[in-house]
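Re: that backbone. Tokens:
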């Protein structure tokens, strides 16, 4: 999946330790002890944002507020974590030229 592709790109730098978490893992792969060891979390999501447990969202938000970096990719603007941290529904609106 995309998680492996993103991880492979980051692993090019030997100074970066990379692992991934997925929805299918217990606690979506993001238990408190793992987040405590994480400097930067790269969040990729596309369609299944609602499947992320609210408890995990709260846990990630707390770590961000404690100083963990968060990079949200692709359609992540609709993710629960991004919306919570931004304090908005993060909907996209645009205008077409000539409307």
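Recovered sequence:
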């Amino acid at each position: 999946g995309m998680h492996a592709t993103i991880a492979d790109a980051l692993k090019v730098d030997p100074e970066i330790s990379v692992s991934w978490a997925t929805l299918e893992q217990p606690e979506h792969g993001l238990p408190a002890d793992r987040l405590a060891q994480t400097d930067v979390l790269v969040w990729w999501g596309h369609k299944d944002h609602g499947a992320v447990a609210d408890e995990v969202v709260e846990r990630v938000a707390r770590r961000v507020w404690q100083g963990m970096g968060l990079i949200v990719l692709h359609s992540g603007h609709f993710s629960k974590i991004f919306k919570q941290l931004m304090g908005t529904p993060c909907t996209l609106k645009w205008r077409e030229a000539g409307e």
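Residues 2-86 form one domain. The beta strands are 40-45, 69-74.
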